[in-house]
Design goal:
This protein has 7 helices and 28 strands. The protein has 474 residues and is an alpha+beta fold. The protein folds into 2 domains: 30 residues, no CATH class; 371 residues, Methylamine Dehydrogenase, Chain H (7 Propeller), CATH 2.130.10. The strands form 7 sheets. Strands 1-28-27-26 form a 4-stranded antiparallel sheet, with no helix packed on it. It is globular. It starts with a helix and ends in a 24-residue tail after the last helix. The N terminus is likely disordered. This is DDB1- and CUL4-associated factor 8. InterPro entries: DCAF8, WD40/YVTN_repeat-like_dom_sf, WD40_repeat_dom_sf, WD40_rpt. It comes from Ananas comosus. Keywords: Repeat, WD repeat.
């Protein structure tokens, strides 16, 4: 009889204590054990920011954590000791949305992006001073950066202007690759929320934003020395029932080590796509009958992703689990295979946005509207069951999604979105040839605009020191 995950995990712990397993091999064998996942508990809180913490990332070795906040500061933590190791002003003028430590730089090179549309590199000098340099600019907020696996020099950015840019720290400026455009005839830029690189094949990267499609690109199709190129995805993923949707858009993406792609939708669910589930380079040219033949993606439900731009992540040394934050202030962890909910922890007084796994061990760092970062480790004395009110919380989240779907289709909301998009577009979208007026009867354009509605007015999107009604984070 095969041993279950719990028994297997305890056996490996015993072997480690006897010295039969080296640390990393032990982590890979035990980190995915349900016995440990169900013992996750709060290890500690990291206090130091004065605003919502919008980004948390471990360095490649996992001993440090870098965070960014609405207070526009970058902090590097010795998270195990729960102490601040280093802090500096990011150089950004608005809320920091992303901060990443570049690999193989002795943890001294940090790239950041923010609501001001700027991409900045911070270099920690030997004397403890920090030199910051502007690398690139977007006309709109920049939620995510993607580092080429193992590279100390190369990374990408995507912004709400729809632009994708390539950076090489050995160069003095960014390279514009292309504008991600809609599949409608007007080819309007799609505001982007997420970009991730396939770790198994770094030539491929995925984009997600203000429509229902997760697009896959091959960097080899673009000339890095060119000013810009056309938008040419090689494949596209979308749940069948969301194709042609007018009220869904993507907030988060994540690749597994086997090229599976997680896609988290605003006020919808999380889906897992594998190779062979794609719609091809253009969904409008794919017959409906062909899409119906595709395998359905695995679904993860129970949370709510409505008020902010939430990420999603794999968890476990072999990506055995899926983790996400929620508007209800919980951290959700599902078993990847089958989608069973394994853990639900209270992670924030308001909303959890970031759930970041440790690169080797079954530890998590989470953040949201609270001004602290929470560290979770499998240190509970016994297995922690789901909360007694778990079903009620998930039912409330479901009712919220359904109510929002009905509201999003009302005529008043449609006109609100049109007016909102006009104000935002005038601020950060470059003029396009033959641009039509937003009040034309172009149905495709109206559909593209609707997916961006989040139920909050643009005038309230900047932070007022932690008020969940005023804080839009990445």
């Amino acid at each position: 009889m095969m041993e279950g995950p719990s028994k297997s995990g305890f056996r490996e712990i015993g072997r480690r204590e006897l010295g039969f397993l080296p640390p990393l091999l032990f982590a890979r064998r035990v980190g995915g054990s349900e016995a440990l996942v169900k013992r996750l508990s709060l290890y500690g809180k990291l206090h130091g920011h004065k605003g919502c913490v919008n980004t948390v990332h471990f360095n490649p070795s996992g001993d440090l954590l870098v965070t960014g906040s609405d207070d526009r500061k970058i902090i590097i933590w010795d998270w195990a000791a729960k102490t601040k190791k280093f802090a500096y002003p990011s150089g950004h003028l608005e809320n920091v949305f992303q901060a990443r430590i570049m690999p193989f730089t002795d943890d001294r090179t940090i790239v950041t992006s923010a609501a001001d549309g700027q991409v900045i590199v911070g270099q920690i000098m030997g004397n403890g001073q920090v030199s910051t340099k502007h690398l690139g600019t977007h006309r709109g907020r920049v939620h995510k950066l993607a580092i080429e696996p193992g590279s100390p020099h190369i990374f990408y950015s995507c912004g709400e202007d729809g632009l994708v840019q390539h950076y090489d720290l050995r160069s003095s400026s960014a390279t514009k690759l292309f504008y991600c455009s809609s599949f409608s005839e007007n080819k309007q830029p799609i505001p982007l929320n997420a970009i991730v690189i396939d770790p198994r094949n770094p030539n491929y990267f995925s984009l997600g934003g203000f429509d229902e499609y997760a697009r896959i690109y091959d960097i080899r199709n673009y000339h890095i020395d060119a000013l810009s190129s056309s938008d040419r995805p090689v494949d596209i993923f979308c749940p069948r029932h969301l194709i042609g949707s007018d009220n869904a858009h993507i907030t988060g993406l994540a690749y597994s080590n086997t090229s599976e792609l997680l896609v988290s939708y605003n006020d919808e669910l999380i889906y897992l796509f594998r190779k062979g589930m794609g719609l091809g380079p253009n969904p409008r040219s794919s017959p409906v009958e062909e899409s119906e033949k595709l395998d359905k993606p695995q679904v993860y439900s129970g949370h709510r992703n409505s008020k902010t731009v939430k990420g999603v992540n794999f968890f476990g040394p072999n990506d055995e689990y899926v983790a996400s934050g929620s508007d209800c202030g919980r951290v959700y962890i599902w078993r990847k295979k089958g989608g069973e909910l394994m853990a639900m922890m209270v992670g924030d007084k308001h909303i959890v946005n970031c759930v970041e796994p440790h690169p080797y061990f079954p530890f998590l760092a989470t953040s949201g509207f609270d001004k602290n970062v929470k560290i979770w480790t499998p240190t509970a004395s016994e297995s922690v069951p789901l909360p007694e009110n778990a079903k009620e919380v998930m039912a409330a989240n479901k009712r919220g999604r359904e109510a929002r779907a009905q509201v999003a289709l009302s005529p008043d909301v449609i006109m609100h979105v049109l007016r909102l998009h006009r104000r935002q577009a005038s601020a950060y979208v470059e003029p396009q040839p033959s641009t039509t007026d937003l009040e034309s009867d172009n149905d495709d354009e109206r559909e593209a605009l609707l997916v961006g509605y989040t139920g909050a007015d643009a005038d309230s999107e900047e932070n007022s020191d932690g008020d969940p009604r005023d804080c839009i984070v990445s």
